[in-house]
Design brief:
Elements (H helix, E strand, L loop, with lengths): L36 E7 L2 E8 L2 H13 L10 E8 L1 H29 L2
Antiparallel strand pairs: 1-2, 2-3
């Protein structure tokens, strides 16, 4: 009796492919958000990332107080600009993309430095 060819078993893990994703803005979501402060908090389902804005004048006052050895406040008020709840897979992807962006910035900075030293 001849053996029947084995059928391919479906893979449990999806095959990774590069697919273009186009994000369409809604409301004011395409406007840039200014942030000079970020905080990361662990949550049961992933990570919460808060981006905030602290007034530059208040930051400068804190710096002057610290340098003078004055009493620092217990807390500083700022404005929450945006909060993102990220799952672990999105956090990993963001980490990789930020790493690539930082490497690109460092490369551009080194190129500028070497060009200005010539």
């Amino acid at each position: 009796m001849a053996e029947e060819p084995k059928k391919a078993m479906p893979s449990a893990a999806p095959v990774a492919r590069n697919i273009a994703v186009r994000l369409v803005p809604s409301g004011d979501s395409d406007l840039p958000i200014l942030s000079n402060y970020a905080r990361v908090q662990l949550s049961p389902s992933g990570v919460l990332v808060d981006f905030g804005f602290l007034e530059p004048a208040a930051l400068a006052a804190l710096e002057r107080t610290a340098r003078a050895g004055g009493k620092m406040p217990d807390a500083v008020n700022g404005r929450l600009a945006a909060r993102f709840a990220l799952t672990s897979d999105v956090l990993i992807a963001l980490h990789q993309q930020l790493g690539q962006a930082i490497a690109g910035l460092r490369g551009a900075s080194r190129s500028k430095e070497s060009a200005s030293s010539k």
